[in-house]
Every structure is written in C-alpha cells, then in structure tokens.
Amino acid sequence: MTSTPQCAAIYARISHDSDGNAAGVGRQLDDCRKLAASLGWAVVDEYVDNDISAYSGRRRPEYQRLLDDLADGTVDAVLVYHLDRLTRRPIELEQFLAVLDAAKVRHVRFVTGHSDITTGDGLLVVRMLAAVAANESASKSRRVARKHEQDAIEGIPHRGSTRPYGYRSDFVTIDPDEAAMFRAIIERVLAGESTRSIAAWLNEEQYPTVKGSEWRTSTLRGMLINPRYAGLRVHRGQIVGAGQWEPIISEETHRKILAAFAERASSGRRAPQRYLLSGLLRCGRCENRLFSSPRASRRRYVCLSGPDHGGCGRLTVTAEPLEDLIAQAVLYRLDSPELADAMTGRNSSDTRTRDLTAELEAATERRDELAKAYGDGAISMSEWLTARRPIEASIEQHTRALARLTRTTALTGLVGNGHQLRASWATLNLDRQHAIVKAVLDHAVIAPGRAGVHTVELDRVQPIWRS
C-alpha cells in the first residue's frame, strides 16, 4: 500500500428519495467522514447523486465528475458507504476499476462490506458483490414491473411524482375548480380553438399548471389526449381497462378530442395567424384558392399563379372589409330559419353518432373483458396482446369516423343567438371566430373588383353555406 492519500473523495448515492430531504445520502456522508477521520485521510470533495438509480443506466452527474477527477489526478482516494452505492452493474464496476488503474489510484475503502481491491482475492470479492447487487436489482425490477402490470389491470391509479391536473394529491379525488377548467378547455378545443391559443389564454389569465409554471402547447395537448381523464387506465401506452377513479369527461368526449386532433394532423390545418378567412375563399376567375399575402401595412387575399399555387394571379381583395362583410353575414345567418333547418337536417347524423358510440362501447367492453381474463389468469400475455390488436384497431377506426362530427360543436348554443354574439364578436380570439365562420360557411367565391378600390362591394361576394 502506498502513502496516506492527501486528496480523498467521498461518494454517496441513493436510488429513491421519497421525502426529498436527502436524509439517506446524508447518513452515508456522515459515516464516510468518520471513516476518513479514523484513517487520517484528508477529504477534499464530496460527490452526491441523490434519487438516482445505479442499475437503470441513467447518467449520474456526480459519479461522472468523480471519474473525471480521478482521471485528472484531482483526487487520489475514494470512500463509499457500500459497493452497491457505487455501482450495481458489473460492466460499470469494470469501467471504474479501469479508471483507477489508469490513474494509479489504490486507495478505495467502504464503510461496510470491507473489500481490498489491491489484491486478487479482494477484486474477486468485489466482482462477486457487484454481480449479486445486479441480480438483486434485476429481480426487484421484475417484481416492480409485475406489480405495476397487475395494478393497471385492476385499475389502480399510477402515482408519479406529480399529480394529474384536475385531481388532488391522492390522484383520485377530483378538484372541482381544475376539473371545471379542464372541461372548459375541452369545449374550446372541440369548438375549433388551437392549443396554442388556449395556452396563451391560460397564461394571460394566470391559471397555473400543477407545478405552478406557465402552460405550453405540448403540455396542454398531452393532458387533453390522456385517457385517464375519461376514467381509463393506461399501461405502457395502452388502455387496459377502467380506472378506480371518477372521470372528469366521458369516453365519448375523449374520443371526440382524439378525433379532432387526428383530423387536424391528417389535414395539416394550422390555426389562423392573422387571417380570419384562411382556406375559405375562392377566386371568381379561375376558382383557385385565395392565399393571404400582406403588402406593407395592408392585409390581402390573393390568387397566386405559379407551379406551387396554380391560380390565375389576376385577383386581389383587401382583407379587412371582406372579413367584416362575411362575419356580419355569418352572424345574420345564425339567426336565419335556413340555418335552423340545415342544422336539423345535419342533426340527422345523430343516428350515426349513436351507432358509432354503441360500437365503440361494445369494443371497449370487449377490451375490458379481455383484460379481466388476463388478470384472472385465464389467458397468457401473448394471447391478450394478440386478441387486443383487432379491438384497438376497431376503436381507432370508429374514432376517426367521428372526426366530421366535431366540426358542428362550434355552433353549440349559437344558432338563433347571432344578435347576442354580434355584441361580443370582437372579444373572441381569431381561432374561435374562424371556427364559427367555418362551421357555417363552406367557402366564398370572390368576383373581380375595380382596380385601385380597397372596399368590397356586396355583389363581389358569393357565400356558399354549409348544408
């Protein structure tokens, strides 16, 4: 053994710190300090990885810093409470030993489970202990995975570090205020508003997330498509049955949300940025779609020529007066008997909605029965997976069939109330205005106007209403 080290390092780690007070690693540090004092080693630094597993392979920042300092010669000895605090993976042990060998460090001591790595027998013991630790971790991992699987099948909620929005800290009890906000957000999405717009509104009104931070579109979308809000238990990305908690929304509403997002993804439709009538105008000369095309301070809709657009390039209309004209026409039509009749005809699709819902409920029941059969041990995992695939495909197919129906929700409560909506129209954000216009107007054909005139005559606009 060489002379007494002058720059010893202490390493401490714990896999799970449920209380968040670092008490576990604190005890390890205390015991290592006592050992260093008894050996006469001078400790120059302490390296702590709290709440990080050594078996998962997840990066441990302080452990990596320790290896770097050993390689650089910053430290010349290591103290650890026990070998399994240092590593639980044999391959990682060999990497640690290689770093020690390259740096010519021979001083490594453990508070418990004394092992002398400077001898062949000592190394053998250390390697055997590492193998045992790895086996224990693997066995524990299998037990935990099986427990999670069983909990999922029984509908027991998964309790992570952060409670789900709309539920209290027990993950089961509904928070009335957050649940009401969640339902309001759902209604706005089904009415055609984008997650970007809703996230901005939530932040402007200072409604925080569960963690007290600002909303992001990714956070909002992930929450909206989460099946747990419909009372469904998910395991490894798959719905396995009903959960043991009260849902905030119905399964039918959950399916409509999925359908709405699926439709937006398949159509490539984005929320309008500055133009109310994006995608809703046609050229009166060539019937091609009009595109937004600002010039200086003036917003315009233009028929664009060229290989990417294919229009005649001979029609331009100023945006503001045209948008005002069509908005007023839409608000007037909301009060018209024609729209009420059209909506009555459209509501005949309710029969189809009921049929789809019944088929979806039947498929869901089959999926739940299948999960129960697996939970009871009547079928194996492979049998469960094989039988579940066609059921999930059926649910997906019927969910997509509901996509069309989500468009009509933009008019819920508005037919016959156009005069009231007119007073608050300017306070609605662009997404909401666009959704209402699109639910009433299929498109509008714009005829050529007089050169140099920035107003829009009524006879230039031919609205084609949805029927």
TrEMBL record:
Top-level division of the source organism's lineage: Bacteria
The UniProt annotation puts the region (Disordered) at 140-161
Q: Which residues form the Recombinase domain?
A: 164-267
Q: Which InterPro entries match?
A: DNA_bind_recombinase_dom, Resolv_N, SSR_resolvase, Zn_ribbon_recom_dom
Q: Which Pfam family name is an example for this entry? A: Recombinase
Q: Where is the Resolvase/invertase-type recombinase catalytic domain?
A: 7-155
Instruction: List the PANTHER family.
Output: DNA RECOMBINASE-RELATED, DNA-INVERTASE FROM LAMBDOID PROPHAGE
Name of the featured protein:
Recombinase family protein
Organism of origin is Nocardioides daeguensis
